[in-house]
Design goal:
Helices cover 41% and strands 18% of the residues. It has 118 residues and is of the alpha+beta class. It has a three-stranded antiparallel beta sheet with strand order 1-2-3, covered by helices on one side. A hairpin with a 2-residue loop joins β1 and β2. 10% of the residues are buried.
Length: 118
């Protein structure tokens, strides 16, 4: 059977006299206008990402053309194809053996999309 033996109370010297009292940090007043602008822009980026995923998922020839261009490391063709379907934000493309990385960007916000090949 197990018996609980309490530890004696820990005797700690008062530390309040060892250090001066901390003063709270002061920050400048917040301005949420740029934060709001970034949120509004991100809605446009999400719409562009939705357009890309809908086109790839609904059109097998489009998906094949993107994959073929990626095999050739032809990022300009992929960007051109994405612009042709109506993507309005800035596009940066990266290819890897596992998939394609699509970076969508506007002035105050960015969105990263990773689609795997298999």
């Amino acid at each position: 059977m197990f018996y609980y033996v309490p530890y004696p109370a820990l005797q700690v010297p008062a530390m309040s006299r060892a250090y001066p009292p901390r003063t709270p940090m002061t920050f400048p007043p917040v301005d949420a206008h740029s934060f709001q602008r970034a949120a509004k822009e991100s809605a446009r980026l999400v719409a562009d990402a939705s357009l890309i995923t809908q086109q790839i998922s609904s059109s097998l020839p489009f998906a094949q053309r993107i994959m073929e261009a990626a095999e050739r490391s032809d990022s300009t063709s992929v960007v051109r194809m994405l612009k042709q379907i109506g993507v309005k934000s800035g596009i940066d493309i990266r290819f890897s053996p596992e998939g394609i990385r699509i970076y969508l960007s506007l002035a105050s916000s960015r969105l990263f999309l990773l689609l795997k090949w298999a």
